[in-house]
C-alpha cells in the first residue's frame, strides 16, 4: 500500500531540509511528476507559491546529489508512485482564493488539521512559515515565533473567530 502513496508523501518522506508536508504538496501540484521536479532549476522551484529562496535551494541541492538520484531510481524500480493525483482547487470563486495562511498555537475549537482543511476547501493555501507572501496568520493560545514574525513583517493576525468570519 505504501508504494501507492502520492508523490507528495514520498517527497515529504525523503526528508529534504526545509520541506514539510505542505511544501511537498505544493511541489507535487506544480511539477506533477518526480522527473519534472528533479529537472527543475532553483529559479523554477522558487516560483512555486509558498517556496522561498532557501527552500528552493534546498530542493535543488537535494536533487543534484548523485546518492539521492540513485535512491530515487531504486525507489522507482521498487514501484513507488512518482506522480501526483492532487488536483488544483476548482476555478470557481471561493472565499479564500489566492490567500496564504499560517497556523500557529492551539485553536480553541479546531485542530490545526481541521482549520487547514477548511482553508483549503475555501481556496486558500496553508504554509508552515511566515513570509512577506503570507496573507494571514491564524494564532491560537501559546503562539510563538510565527506570531512574532508576522508582527515583525506586518502580516495581519486572526484568531479562530476571525478565520470563521472570513470563511462565512
Order of helices and strands: HHHHHHEHEEHEH
**Rg measurement, Å:** 17 Å
Number of helices: 9
How confident overall, as mean pLDDT?
Answer: 89
Quick tags:
alpha/beta, four-stranded parallel β-sheet, 168 residues, 8% strand, 48% helix
Task: Tell me the layout of helices and strands.
Blueprint: H1 7-13, H2 21-31, H3 34-39, H4 42-46, H5 53-64, H6 66-77, E1 100-104, H7 112-121, E2 125-127, E3 136-139, H8 145-153, E4 157-158, H9 160-167
Parallel strand pairs: 1-2, 1-3, 3-4
Tell me what the structure shows:
Helix content is 48%, strand content 8%. It has 168 residues and is of the alpha/beta class. It has a 4-stranded parallel β-sheet, sandwiched between helices. It starts with 6 loop residues before the first helix and ends with a helix.
Quick description:
The protein is an alpha/beta fold and 168 residues long.
